[in-house]
Design brief:
Layout: H1 2-5, E1 22-25, E2 45-48, H2 50-58, E3 63-68, E4 74-79, E5 85-89, H3 127-145
Antiparallel strand pairs: 1-2, 3-4, 4-5
Length: 149
């Protein structure tokens, strides 16, 4: 279904076919506490080619988001480390025109997750968890300061 909505990699300018891409959680999935991280749902998944998936995951400063507008259309946006944001709409919404109007059964992520106290003397979050928390704060700020629609 996700690859049907997005026929190519959702990174702006990339034309790698979706069937040759990985499905990416936009809001990162929390393996230790699944309720706290991004859900595995159409509203939080999109295809990314291996290069762009790794750039988003391991590159510094890259942020992506996925938004469902009031009409049920899915939009993705990518923000560069320099603050430039590019928004694109899912190309094949005509296949499933009312998909975005179906309410998801999950709420927003509760928290990015924390680690158990142990060998880490002063750190409360792993680097990955801190990066996920940072991205969640940026997404929340972007949604309140600059509404996309």
């Amino acid at each position: 279904m996700i690859r049907g909505l997005f026929p190519t990699c959702t990174w702006p300018g990339c034309d790698r076919p979706a069937h040759r891409c990985q499905l990416d959680h936009v809001t990162e999935f929390n393996h230790r506490n699944p309720e706290a991280g991004g859900p595995t749902c159409y509203c939080n998944l999109n295809p990314k080619c291996l290069f762009h998936h790794q750039l988003k995951t391991f590159g510094d400063g890259w942020l992506d988001d996925q938004i469902v507008d009031a009409h049920g259309a899915l939009w993705t946006e990518v923000t560069t480390p320099h603050g430039i944001t590019v928004r694109t709409r899912a190309l094949n919404t005509w296949l499933l025109p009312n998909l975005g109007l179906i309410p998801c059964g999950h709420g927003p992520p509760t928290a990015p997750g924390t680690t158990e106290p142990g060998d880490e003397p002063t750190r409360t979050l792993t680097r990955t968890e801190a990066k996920h928390a940072y991205r969640q704060r940026l997404r929340a700020r972007n949604r309140t300061e600059d509404p996309p629609f």
